[in-house]
Write a structure and sequence with these properties.
Layout (H helix, E strand, L loop, with lengths): L3 E5 L2 E5 L7 E6 L5 E6 L5 E5 L7 E6 L5 E8 L2 E2 L7 E2 L1 E7 L2 E6 L5 E3 L6 E3 L11 E7 L10 E2 L2 H8 L4 E4 L5 E9 L4 E3 L3 E3 L3 E5 L7 E6 L4 E6 L5 E6 L3 E2 L8 E2 L1 E9 L2 E8 L8 E7 L5 E8 L2 E8 L5 E7 L12 E6 L4 E7 L2 E6 L6 E5 L4 E6 L2
Parallel strand pairs: 7-15
Antiparallel strand pairs: 1-2, 1-29, 3-36, 4-5, 5-6, 6-7, 8-9, 10-11, 11-14, 12-13, 14-17, 16-17, 18-19, 20-21, 21-22, 22-23, 24-25, 26-27, 27-28, 28-29, 30-31, 31-32, 32-33, 34-35, 35-36
């Protein structure tokens, strides 16, 4: 039995595994390591992809009929420090009008150190100077109408790092301006990891207040509040490590944030617990926007990696929490699970293979999920 709990008024209630009826289908396949999603005004999807070879990251637009076309190509990406060396580059996305904000993850900036759990800077150097950053792309028109990609060359990376805007023109004559909104290059010490890197993984925005962008840094275990025009930022909340409840792995386990959703006067932040990925120790935390105070919102989850909300035809609010795997250390890892909450009790309504991101269309209620290993976006039509 799978257990999960939603904390309301300080009370944590347990839920059980139930499956409801829905229609699951593949919207598109053949994607190159897809991570996160964002909806466009026309109801299409923007998806961040790591690509295969170094520095082949891209942002694709996928139509509701399942057709893919590139929007931006040639973004930095490289093999991560995971055991599988899975490439990572562009991750979190936020689209506001004609401006697209892109989180650039760690790439190959770090490698394992000499002692268990420690990290060092990559002795070979990173594959690009644009990792652990946030980029902003300003298009001269509606991104839904752009038919051909804007492409970056490796020499363009230094232009952005040097603080200059990059003016791009595609084959149709459309224009876009790419700029480095913020870079998190500082070196941070840590008693366990020795060097603690920066790994921006997800973005969020209250579109009624577009002047503020929220950035989840999975390496620093923080959520940042950033000015979407100047890039000036501050740490809104830092998530503390917890004592490892098992005899396996390090003495303390990181509370790794993986997504951020604005919900009124608070942020809802999913957390994938760090190694050894103890089942039941992932969660959703609420962060007060005024004070930065962190409080539990949903507990007893496994590897929470994204969250979405929708309003039903009757006006009720539903919350959906996506988990990367139900058993992270199993061989092969367990399927990812989508939890639905209509109240304090949650239920698993669907499973996926290595899901990393989700988006919910408020107009139709359809849920879209990226699968990293399969290269698919899965569409889930709920009753």
């Amino acid at each position: 039995m799978i257990r999960a709990g939603l904390r309301l008024g300080g009370l944590c209630l347990l839920g059980v595994l139930l499956v409801s009826a829905q229609t699951k289908s593949t919207l598109v396949d053949g994607l190159q390591l897809p991570y996160k999603l964002a909806l466009t005004p026309a109801g299409n999807l923007l998806v961040s992809e790591a690509g295969g070879q170094p520095n082949t990251g891209r942002i694709s637009l996928v139509t509701r009929s399942g057709l893919r076309r590139s929007l931006i190509e040639g973004l930095p990406s490289a093999a991560s420090n995971s055991p599988e060396a899975t490439p990572i580059g562009p991750t979190g996305l936020v689209l506001h009008e004609t401006s697209l904000y892109i989180a650039m993850a760690e790439g190959d900036a770090v490698r394992n150190g000499a002692t268990q759990g420690s990290l060092v800077l990559n002795p070979k150097g990173p594959s690009a100077p644009l990792f652990h950053a946030v980029l902003r792309a300003d298009f001269d028109g509606d991104p839904d109408t752009i038919q051909n990609p804007f492409s970056l060359k490796s020499t363009d990376y230094q232009t952005l790092v040097d603080g200059w805007p990059l003016e791009l023109t595609n084959s149709d004559g459309a224009k876009a301006t790419l700029s480095l909104l913020a870079s998190f290059q500082g070196l941070f010490t840590d008693p366990v990891t020795v060097y603690r890197h920066s790994d921006p993984f997800a973005l969020g925005m209250d579109h009624g207040k577009p002047g503020t962008l929220y950035v989840v840094d999975s390496g620093q275990n923080t959520v940042l509040r950033m000015d979407s025009a100047s890039g000036k930022w501050q740490v809104l909340a830092r998530f503390a490590a917890f004592k490892n409840p098992t005899a396996f792995g390090p003495p303390f386990v990181d509370s790794v944030p993986t997504s951020v959703t604005v919900n009124g006067g608070q942020l809802l932040v999913t957390q994938l617990s760090g190694f050894p990925f103890v089942p039941g120790y992932a969660s959703v935390q609420a962060v007060d926007l005024a004070t930065g105070k962190v409080s539990p919102w949903i507990a007893w989850l496994n590897s929470a990696i994204d969250l979405g909300m929708r309003t039903t035809a009757s006006g009720a609010q539903q919350v959906f929490v996506l988990g990367f795997s139900s058993a992270m250390t199993a061989t092969p890892p367990g399927d990812g699970q989508l939890w639905q909450y209509d109240g304090p009790v949650g239920k698993v309504i669907e499973t996926f293979t290595t899901p990393t991101g989700m988006a919910i269309d408020p107009a139709t209620g359809d849920i879209f999920v990226t699968e990293l290993a399969t290269g698919k976006i899965i569409k889930l039509a709920l009753p």
